[in-house]
Design goal:
406 residues; 43% helix; 4-stranded antiparallel beta sheet
């Protein structure tokens, strides 16, 4: 009978053996960046890869560019551990958030867990590799949650690349919601008869300024940032319609409600002061990330066997005002973790320099190491079984209760 440690060794060896294929997979995604809900090439190469390695693949799962690849046991048999792939890119600057590496890491972890299940000598459970599109706007995981994708999953994990030395098993991520507002005025010739117009661009600018002025009274951990997406048609026409988008972020979803109210007031004030009408909506709620303590500790223990050095608690505190992810929503459904791992660059993500880093050969070693750590963490849980999973679920329930009361 295989031991837990021997299964971890097998998982790591299989990931190493597939390293060339995994790098080619990552490069295919990196060289062909696709925006949210349009990741057709990434969907194809990932599903072909997983099918080649023996997974039962469901293409176009609930969403056109989502997929589910499974191995082990029949439905309802044993624990089902999930590793997540992301693969959408950013406009103009490509894979500046490293989703090609997230996809590679998830696929690699899936291979390792599958190998452990095959070598165990007894049924241990199942592994699901879930392909989730549209993390960079669109909330792909939220749509998958709504479709029931996590109903039969016991835990979910993924890893995210960051700049050098940003290694942590349990990083924070803020709750976030997108705010869209349209201001309606009245068109007029801007030189011949401007007094006949109502300037919707003035309303958009006033709203933007209202939000900027409001920052002084916001909590240090809150974030607001936006752009004017439509400022009018031509300079000689008083704009009759303008559009603005803002992202609102807070450490918890409860705090987000306060910020939403303040934002609406800023928009309504701008409309009233310029004589415009307005319409607004909120979209794509991302909840704050809840990292399960036990899973994070297991991940850290496994990572240390590869010499990974994690940030100190003091260093982690500097990450308090970070980004947001729809993985946060997943961690309100099932226990999960979302570790960060550092690449060989000092430049932060969402930059062209970070795009270069995610496509470099230097990114492979930390990506494959984290794939192994995810696989080994899954093996820890699968080998310890349902009784151990009860401890994780109890932590999850307590974390949910605390976060919903904040």
């Amino acid at each position: 009978m295989a031991t837990r440690e021997s299964l971890k060794t097998i998982a790591s060896e299989v990931i190493d053996k597939a390293s060339t294929d995994l790098n080619e997979l990552s490069q295919e995604i990196w060289k062909n960046p696709e925006l949210n809900f349009n990741e057709h090439h990434a969907h194809k190469v990932l599903t072909d890869f997983l099918e080649k390695y023996g997974f039962d693949v469901e293409r176009h799962y609930l969403l056109d560019t989502a997929f589910r690849a499974t191995y082990g046991g029949s439905s309802g048999g044993g624990l089902n551990v999930c590793v997540i792939c992301e693969y959408d890119a950013l406009p103009d600057i490509g894979h500046a958030c490293g989703h090609n590496l997230i996809a590679e890491c998830g696929a690699g972890a899936g291979l390792g867990i599958k190998a452990a299940l095959e070598a165990a000598g007894k049924p241990l459970g199942r592994v699901t590799v879930l392909g989730t599109p549209a993390e960079e706007g669109g909330g792909g995981k939220v749509h998958l949650i709504d479709g029931g994708a996590f109903k039969d999953i016991d835990l979910a994990m993924m890893c995210h690349p960051m700049e050098r030395d940003i290694n942590t098993p349990s990083p924070p991520a803020l709750a976030m919601i997108e705010f869209y507002v349209t201001f309606y005025g009245k068109a007029a010739h801007a030189s011949y008869a401007p007094w006949e117009g109502i300037n919707a661009l003035d309303a958009a600018i006033m709203f933007y300024q209202n939000m900027s002025v409001m920052r002084q009274q916001l909590k240090p951990t809150w974030r607001v940032h936006g752009v004017i997406t439509n400022g009018g048609a031509k300079p000689n026409i008083i704009p009759e319609k303008t559009e603005v988008c803002f992202y609102l972020r807070t450490p918890t979803s409860m705090e987000l409600e306060d910020l939403k109210t303040k934002t609406i007031t800023c928009a309504e004030g701008a409309a009233k002061s310029t004589g415009c009408k307005l319409e607004y909506k909120f979209e794509s709620l991302m909840l704050n990330l809840i990292n399960n303590k036990t899973l994070a500790e297991l991940f850290a223990e496994n990572a240390k066997t590869f010499g990974v050095k994690f940030m100190s608690k003091k260093e982690e505190e500097k990450l308090a005002a970070n980004g947001s992810t729809d993985m946060g929503n997943v961690t309100y459904e099932v226990p999960g973790i979302h570790p960060f791992f550092g690449l060989q660059t000092d430049i932060a993500c969402h930059t062209r320099e970070f795009t270069d880093a995610t496509g470099s050969m230097e990114a492979q070693e930390p990506t494959l190491t984290n794939a192994k750590c995810l696989a080994m963490t899954a093996i820890d849980v699968l080998c310890r079984g349902e009784e151990f999973m009860k401890q994780i679920r109890q932590e999850f329930k307590e974390d949910l209760k605390m976060n919903k009361s904040c």
